[in-house]
């Protein structure tokens, strides 16, 4: 994917910034197990728009300019394979990176960084849990 070097670079820059701003945090001291499961986070953060079944019919869907996409057809729409890179980029940086970007979808990266006290390893695990959950819903 064309955006990857850029994404990597931004991630590195971010880690560098975080590391210099908060030298007291030791990344290895944070247990990743305290994080909610992907399913739990999905229901808490995503279902309002994308729907509990992820088909795009959440209670807020009709208020948005861009209808929330059906997240159970992501694999089907990406040559039969769940697009981990695509989804994690969207979660981290918002859908603006994709060609159809709108601002109706919140950008989760900065929110998760706030929740997780700038701990990048935990933020990435959160995104991974969400991706794994969405991957498990494909074709349902
Ligand atoms: C406020 C409503 C809202 C919430 C909450 C929301 N989304 Fe979205 N999401 C959207 C909209 C609208 C789009 C379409 C954006 C666009 O096309 O620009 C979208 C797009 C996406 C896409 C791209 C789908 C595709 O088919 O290309 C993914 C993946 C996604 N959202 C996942 C999530 C996840 C995971 C969460 C929870 C962490 C979440 N969204 C929370 C409204 C929302």
Query: Which radius of gyration do the C-alpha atoms yield?
Result: 16 Å
Q: What structural class do the secondary elements suggest?
A: mainly alpha
Q: Return the string of H and E elements.
A: HHHHHH
Mean pLDDT: 83
- CATH class division: Mainly Alpha
Total of helices: 6
Helix fraction, binned, reads: 40-55%
CATH fold name: Cytochrome Bc1 Complex, Chain D, domain 2
Oligomer status: single chain
Bound small-molecule species: heme C
- By CATH, the architecture is named Orthogonal Bundle
Share of β-strand residues = under 5%
Largest sheet: none
Could you say which overall geometry the principal axes of the C-alpha atoms support? globular
Number of strands: 0
Walk me through the structure:
- By secondary structure, the chain is mainly alpha-helical.
- The protein has one domain (33-136): Cytochrome Bc1 Complex, Chain D, domain 2 (Orthogonal Bundle).
- The chain has six helices and no strands.
- Helix 2 packs across helix 6 (120-136) and helix 4 (84-93) crosses helix 6 (120-136).
- It binds heme C.
Give the helices and strands, then pairings.
Elements: H1 4-21, H2 38-50, H3 74-77, H4 84-93, H5 108-115, H6 120-136
The structure holds heme C.
Short description:
The protein is an all-alpha fold. The chain is built from six helices and no strands. The protein is globular and about 40 Å long.
Tags for this model:
binds heme C; Cytochrome Bc1 Complex, Chain D, domain 2; 6 helices; mainly alpha
